[in-house]
Every structure is written in structure tokens, then in C-alpha cells.
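Query structure, 237 C-alpha cells:
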């Protein structure tokens, strides 16, 4: 599996929408059977293709705290991400959804187990450590290609995670941070690697060789990104 890298110039501190577009560009235009890359973003909420923005995202809180909001083309729930999460993208040939999901889950679990973490998958395509979630996954298809992306919780800003996604005030008072922390765990609590060391370990474990994108590829990604930035796409439904 090839690791996809970006040129050092001309990219900068990109938004989550860029990386969603990058997945789509790789799927549409790169003739590689299996591709993988990792990315991190400034504080951002990403919600699923079938979700209603106002029902899922605490828009006033996000605006107040500079948290960006984007819709993805895969299904699933609303997720908060920041620089302390590692976002994983896997692009593969084929249309067999269960097989592709299984391959991706197997890879993630293999990496964690190799680090000495007792990780396991669920039928809901989550990766768990014991009874706590460490990694959630979503999926969508293009003709002949499958895209799986996942958010790995190395660490995060719990206050933002709790408030950027729309639980009611009553739910916050009754459950709050402690309730959320009972359902999730952070990878930093289970391994000795820092986040950059973890990214290097994941890449070395899963990938052989790399494919360096060109400046022209970056321009192609930015062209696709326009669809993710449109008000109609973000606010539809």
C-alpha cells in the first residue's frame, strides 16, 4: 500500500475540506490499488451526508470558539476533530463494502495490537479498547473505488468535543464530561509514543513506498474542494 504525500510548497495549513477532496482526487485519478494517508486539522466539526446541520452542530458555540464546520460525503454521525486526533484515509479498488471495511478495521487493529494495545472491532465499525471507543469509521464509494476514513483519538479538547456537537443543556448538566469520558478513551493513555511518533509507526507498519503528489495534483484537489465549501452542500437537507 502506497502512502500519499503532499509537496512541501503550496499547501500550508489546510482545512478539513481539503483532505476530503484529497481522498476523492486520489480515488478518481490515481491508478493505485491501495492508498493511505494521515492528516490533522485545526478544531473542526464534521457531520455526515444525511445529517441536518442545525440538529447536529452547536453553530453558535463553534462560531464563538473558531471551530470550523464541514459536511462529508460519507454517512455516520457528527465528529469533533483537532490537532490531537489523527485522521486516517484509506482508498481502495473495488465495490465490496464489507470487505473493504474489514480490511481497514483489520489494519487499524493490527497497528494497535503491535503497540501492545488490546484493541478490537465492533459491528458498528468502531475500534474499542475494552468497552471504550478509540476510533470511529465512515465510508463512501465512487465508481470502482472505496473510501474509508476514520478519527483516531490520541487526545482531544474535551470541552470543545462536548459543546461543539449539540447535546441539550439538560444533557450536559446530567452527563457532562465524565459521561463522555466513560465511553471513550485516548490512545496517549495506552502507549508511550507521542503523536508524531505514532504517525510514523502507523505509516511504517502499513505502507511500503510513497506517492508524492505534484503541484498540479494539489490544484486538482482544490478544484474538488470547492464542492465541499459550497453553502448548498454544507447546509442541504
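Result returned for the query:
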Amino acid at each position: 500500500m502506497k502512502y500519499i504525500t503532499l509537496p512541501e510548497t503550496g499547501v500550508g495549513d489546510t482545512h478539513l475540506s481539503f483532505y476530503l477532496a484529497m481522498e476523492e482526487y486520489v480515488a478518481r485519478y490515481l491508478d493505485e490499488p491501495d492508498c493511505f494517508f494521515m492528516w490533522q486539522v485545526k478544531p473542526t466539526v464534521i457531520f455526515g451526508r444525511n445529517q441536518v446541520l442545525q440538529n447536529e452542530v452547536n453553530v453558535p458555540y463553534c462560531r464563538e470558539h473558531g471551530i470550523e464546520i464541514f459536511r462529508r460525503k460519507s454517512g455516520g454521525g457528527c465528529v469533533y476533530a483537532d490537532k490531537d486526533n489523527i485522521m486516517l484515509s484509506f482508498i481502495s479498488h473495488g465495490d465490496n463494502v464489507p470487505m473493504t471495511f474489514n480490511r481497514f478495521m483489520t489494519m487499524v487493529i493490527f497497528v494497535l495490537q503491535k503497540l501492545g494495545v488490546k484493541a478490537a472491532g465492533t459491528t458498528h465499525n468502531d475500534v474499542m479498547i475494552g468497552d471504550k471507543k478509540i476510533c470511529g469509521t465512515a465510508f463512501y464509494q465512487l465508481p470502482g473505488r472505496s473510501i474509508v476514513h476514520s478519527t483516531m483519538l490520541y487526545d482531544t479538547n474535551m470541552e470543545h468535543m462536548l459543546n461543539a456537537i449539540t447535546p441539550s443543556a439538560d444533557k450536559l448538566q446530567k452527563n457532562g464530561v465524565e459521561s463522555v469520558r466513560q465511553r471513550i478513551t485516548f490512545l496517549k493513555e495506552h502507549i508511550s509514543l507521542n503523536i508524531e511518533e505514532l504517525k510514523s509507526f502507523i505509516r511504517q507498519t502499513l505502507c511500503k513506498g510513497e506517492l508524492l503528489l505534484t503541484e498540479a495534483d494539489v490544484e486538482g484537489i482544490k478544484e474538488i474542494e470547492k464542492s465541499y465549501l459550497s453553502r448548498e452542500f454544507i447546509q442541504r437537507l
